[in-house]
Request: fold
Amino acid sequence: MSLIEVSHLRKEYPNITPLKDVNATVDEGEVISIIGPSGTGKSTFIRCLNRLETPTSGSIIVDGVDMCDPATDLPAMRRKMGMVFQNYALFGHKLVVENLMMAPMDLLGLSKQEAYNRALQLLDQVGLRDKALSWPHELSGGQRQRVAIARGLAMDPKILLFDEPTSALDPQMVSEVLSVITGLAERGLTMLVVTHEMRFARDASSRVFYMDRGELWEAGPPEQIFEHPLRQETHDFIFRVRSWKWDVNTLSPDFHAMEASLVVYCQRQFMGRHATNVCQLMVEETVGNQLLTIARQRNVTDPNIHVMLSAGEGGVDIILTIDCRGPLLESGSLMDGERDILSQSIVESLCERWERVEPGLVRLYVRG
Amino acid sequence: MRRRRCRRAIVAFAVVLFACVMFGVLAVVPASVQASESESETSEPLYQTLDELSGKRFAYVNGSVYDQRIEERIEGTEKDFYPSLAECVAAVEASKADAAVQLSYCCQLAVNRRPGTVTLLPEPVADVSEGFFFQKGSSLTEKFNKLIERFGENGTLAALEEKWVAADESGKTLPAQDWDAPNGTLKFVTSGVIEPFSYVGEGGKAKGYDVELALLIARELGYHLKVSTAPMDSIFAEVDSGKADFGGTLTQTPERASVCDFSDTVMPTTISVIVMTKGGAAAGGDFWAGMAESFRKTFIEEDRWKLILSGLGTTVLISVCAGALGTLLGFGTVLARRSGMRWIGKLVDGYQAIMGGVPLVVVLMVLYYVVFGSISVPGTLVAILAFTLSFGSTSGSTMWTAVDGIDIIQEETGLALGYTRKEVFRKIIFPQAMQRFTPQLMGQFVSLVKDTAIVGYISVQDLTRASDLIRARTMDAFFPLISTAIIYFLFCRLLAWMLGKLAARFDVENRPREIEGVQL
Reply:
């Protein structure tokens, strides 16, 4: 028998149905990453598991107990399943160590000394022992989230639920929290993690759930989901989160917004500082300095240029694709004598090599 | 740390501001005194006959009907009403009114106490008759009338009149109630601001012509007498609602006679008009000596400081009780709102809407004269109830705003750890909300202390009412008012300071960073 069995789970609100029909089982010791587009019921699913949300229909069996039965002692069941939220929610009126001591003393009957010892040990595990006597508001976001994880562990749960634990954090703090969660995964704790960190999903989880439009579309080991997805929806999603896209439909596009989203993507893919700078410069050079200048000269008001960046495992094999086969190519050749305009000057010196797939479609390879 | 420094700065600013205002007042008053000295020395009245006052502004005491008598004789007058003759006289002195009207004996006393600034029109302007009044259909009326007639015939009334209007204060005492009272106790309510008929003397006890006459009648009828005072505008309500058995004395009018029964006239008398002297403002004399005299009159004479002290005690009693009970009530509304039951939430909404939309003084009077009209409940208790209801509403919404403002994630975190909803509230939500609402709640409590100044309306003698009663005796508006302001100010500052200390002690940020009772 599995530790968690969910069948035909449905959750309706008056104007939206985040969960339509979810069926899933989780065995003891599994680490499940739940991925999928925003607003598709991932959080609702995980919140149904410990009954912070009440399902409309369906059943949830945790450790042999029906969570939807009105007779179930919910507080007792919840003690078996810790939960870590996106916004950490440390108790602001308690010192860090007291955040960890409170629930074990109140609910598990631990003595103050036992709770204190356990709290210090857990803080040690998440690398924050010297912050034991700090106030929560004195910690950084990453530190707070690590305390929140330790607080969940202090109840010695069988299951730990994570609801987007790194979404509210700055990129450099993401890794410190992820490494703590990865460490837990290796210790055999059953965990369900709603996440946008694909690298974590691929490297640290035993199985991945792909959720979309209120349903569990595909569940399987990370290699399956990331390399050979069985369903088209999964494939499209994985492809989308792996690549960065920018469409230029005006003669004066918002370069600041482009730059910001490009940098976020590069950091997510663990691309180095240098590669990030190169990608940024190449986009500005090709689009800003060359293609838009041509568009202006030829009076093309909607150049319709597509820029796409994709990166392989660990931030290598970076490919920048520039596609201007639309109105810009139709207005005239992009060849300048023997050379493609796009390969000129600075671009050529920045990229490792380049390739002209067809007129108006160029691939630039960047060193990772 | 920064917040504290900021608060200290605000306090310092308030003190400086207050000092400036006081200095301004003290600076202006002597200037006007000196100006008047040089201008004129005459104490002739500014007007000689009533006709000269047509079209002028008159000051009357609240509940007075003398305006009708004046308007019968001259036309086009305007009128304002004040709590007692002292304020009327102050209005004339400050040229806010041209004339003040009251019973001739009272006017004569007032003029004697403000020599040089105000004086009387040479002739009384009308005859009036004052009587006790009773609930409609009371059997007392007939008994009173018989005794009043007998006292008139045997010279008792004349002796009383002579005693109470005499210049000599020493003989003006009331007989002790040492007689047997087979019929119980009669409750008598009087204004306490119409010297020599009804005023507050040593020890804050009411005395005067009306009071002694009421005592003599009670003795003849076999009762003891319990005397209380209430503002002019409230004494009708006191009798009408049955809080008192009879009141007085007042002038009988047809309108009043339709609500209450009146006794026969207890003393035929006249009304007079007070006007400014040609000299204008206060007569000469050293300003500081004047202040010393005012201080003596306000605090020392007849041990009036005791009246002020007991008034302050009442103010403190009402505000502390209402503050404590109101906080509990407010906490109750927060629990009610959290119960999640919709109709309870609506109930709390309704209660807070009523308390927010009806003036507190009206709530106070409705409670006293209507809700508890026929039940004998001490005014202080009713005042505590009214202010509890009021403070419960404001403190409740302050607390709810803070509780509601705690991130929902805090609650979910608590639930996810395995706490019940009640435990989450007690251990996680409320302690954090308390950090937020405590400063605001303390400010509201200090406001409550000042708001209690209206309890005089239901005949409770608090600090403000004590100052009213003293003003009615000294006929000096300035000094008792400023003294009251200073006492309130000092008391509120002291309270704010103590509450601040208390709050600092409970502020978690000030606690030491250590866990008691554990070893490393």
